[in-house]
Amino acid sequence: MKKILVTGAVGQIGSELVEALRDKYGNENVVAAGHRTKPTEEMKEAGPFEFIDVLDKEEIESAVKKYNIDTIYHMGAILSATGEEKPQLAFRVNIIGLYNILEVGREQKLERIMVPSSIAAFGPDTPKENTPNETILRPTTMYGISKVSGELLGDYYFRRFGLDVRGVRYPGIISNKTLPGGGTTDYAVEIFYEAIRNKYYVCFLKEDSTLPMMYMPDAIRGLIELAEADINQLKHHSDFNLAAVSFSPGELVSEIQRIIPDFTCDYKPDFRQEIADSWPSSIDDSAAQDEWGWKPEFDLRRMTEDMIEKLRIKLR
Ligand code: AKB
Fold first, then answer.
1. Which of 26, 41, 44, 255 could form a disulfide linkage to 304, CB 3.0–4.6 angstroms apart?
2. Which domain range does residue 21 map to?
3. Which helix (H) or strand (E) holds 190?
């Protein structure tokens, strides 16, 4: 039976990943780990929870030994916007923290480490449209630099030590359970909350700033499917492009207005615009399709309908 540790379990993706993994492998077999943010009662009651600082290798090691862990989903990270405000922190958490996870994985001979990368691995010199899996990786943000380092480290640990490290380059993730924090694509979540609460939103990106995006159910399914893929079919390991939809704030506003016609949005780009401008507008995920059968289910319309339906209930 699998014994899984999820770092960053209290975060936007981690919280839903823990739920999905617990449904699949059993509550007791999935240990949720956060840093400082308290878990919800629901998460704590459903299964084991630990506070772990990924900068402290011994803390990771002792959780791995205590629960007999064989797989880590390492979701704990500082995202792009916070990473630009606190680059030293982003370096430590995203690079040293990952190094500690990989070293524990190597020393304890873990079966698998899942580490998400991001479209932030690309940079201003990367082709913007339908960005290929293999392309120029020269990001200009600390977050992006940490993601490229993570991909290279993951592949290195696989080649050099036989540690099975896998990861996808996530686009912006839209969800209705836990709010994201510190990302450039966070507008695409905030906008739904404000559309429902106030019918008005001020967007921190320009109206035509198109970015690759994905709805949470696809993001969770994709990562678990990659974790379960037959290793013999994989030519890539830590750096799969993963795509679903691409849209701009203006296009998202029009889609929301189909359901909430009196919703309006103003645009006041801030420092996050420069980060968004350095990322692709769409990515080519044919490697993920060919090597492990990736296929997204949610397009912009279906995602918007589902987000509004779920949030209307949550915010009632
Ligand atoms: C961010 O905006 O920083 C993240 C990402 C695209 O990795 N959502």
1. 255
2. 4-171+216-241
3. helix 187-197
